[in-house]
Amino acid sequence: MNRPTARATFRHISRGWSLAGRCILLLIAVSGCDRMRTPHVAGKVTVDGAPVATGKITFTPLTQGDDEIEASSEIRNGGFSLNCPAGQRRVSIFAFRPAGTPGPDGKPHMEQYIPKTYNLESTQVVEIAGPEMQNLNFDLSLPTAAR
């Protein structure tokens, strides 16, 4: 009697899974195309013309839904770069600088030094359109007393 060996059976099954696996990967890739086209946003943040040395920028959706997510990036030497879903977004910017004497670990304490109107109470709204790269620059001003 001519019965298939375990090795031959495994090859037959693995060929079938290989084809099925390829089809599944293709379906995932095609269905995820919109996600792969999330707009890239980059730019500069300055305060009174000087680049923000250390900070954070956040783009929060104006509408809340299951598919609406917040996007944020660190600000380093005035620059930021991130992928952000398309739509209207509220912009919150935090900027940090050393304050006072160093802590016990020798590292300086950092203070958030820009007004709440740029972060917690921000009304700045931008439209992120996709999938092209967007360049957004923000020039903030400090009140005289905060400088």
Order of helices and strands: HHEEEEEEEEEE
CATH H-level superfamily title of the largest domain: Immunoglobulins
Shape: extended
Instruction: Report the mean per-residue pLDDT as an integer.
Output: 82
Protein model, in words:
This protein has two helices and ten strands; from the N terminus they run ααββββββββββ. It is an alpha+beta fold and 147 residues long. The protein has two domains: 1-31; 38-146, Immunoglobulin-like (Sandwich). Strands 1, 2, 5, 9 and 10 form a five-stranded mixed β-sheet that branches. Strands 3, 4, 6, 7 and 8 form a five-stranded antiparallel β-sheet that branches. The protein starts with 5 loop residues before the first helix and ends in a 7-residue tail after the last strand. The protein has helices at residues 6-31, 33-36, and strands at 40-47, 50-51, 54-61, 71-76, 79-83, 87-99, 109-112, 125-128, 134-135, 138-140. Residues 25-35 have low confidence and may be disordered.
For the structure shown, list the relevant keywords.
about 150 residues; alpha+beta; Immunoglobulin-like; five-stranded mixed sheet; five-stranded antiparallel sheet; 2 helices; 10 strands; extended
In short:
The protein is of the alpha+beta class and 147 residues long. It has helices at residues 6-31, 33-36, and strands at residues 40-47, 50-51, 54-61, 71-76, 79-83, 87-99, 109-112, 125-128, 134-135, 138-140. The protein is 20% helix and 37% strand.
